[in-house]
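Please annotate this fold before class:
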Amino acid sequence: MSGPRDAYEVLEVETNASPDDLKKAYRRLARKWHPDRNPAPDAADRFKEIATAWEVLGDPEKRRRYDLERGRVSRGELPEDFLADVADAIDRAEHWIRSQVLPHYARYWRGAGAELAARIVADVEDLATPRTLEPASWWKRRAVQARARTIVVTVWMQPSNQASGIVRGRGFWEICILPYALWRAGMRDPAELDDAVLRLLLMRYAQVLAAGRLVGRADAEPDALVAAGREADDALVTQRVMRAGFWVVLGAMFGSLLLMGYFQL
């Protein structure tokens, strides 16, 4: 994700530039990047970017507000309305995941949930449009619901280039959303935030459901991703069955020895 560049950077001036310096910089760059005079493929985009920066910095009141907001963001402080939009996006995304996504994908739960997680990751694009999903049978949902109860979603306010993170606590998993990175990425529109936060939470929920392991990249081949998840689950199930079988055999042998000793008495 890449957001809009700093207006001062676009006009190639210092933050303490005078109004005359701003005007000169704008005129020079506008002439240089005007599509009628510059044949470069990105000339139109650069010209539009320059015009937008001048629209902000050329107006004293808009520049004052821009400088104020710019200073706050540089200190890790963000506008209250933006933070409210992020909080709303998290609430909507978490409700959708817990009420629809997890009950539906629970049908793929085996082992440590690697296949379930891989299927979520493979379907992230499709799941970005919330809708009603058919839930799995109740007994399949129990393991997923138990794991989901250990997940908390929090907001971390410190500046970071990473939009989300995951922390393993004692008895719980913490999924962290970092609004600063979303702001730096140019996320302003509430609908855009909804989409971004939903994707982030889907990926992190999948990671937690696979016992904290990464389940592959979102751009990996979906079939290969799911096959790897199924193989990991099958291996774990086999391991558990063999372990249980060992203890059953050991218990049977111990019981037989006890019985033999009892009858010899």
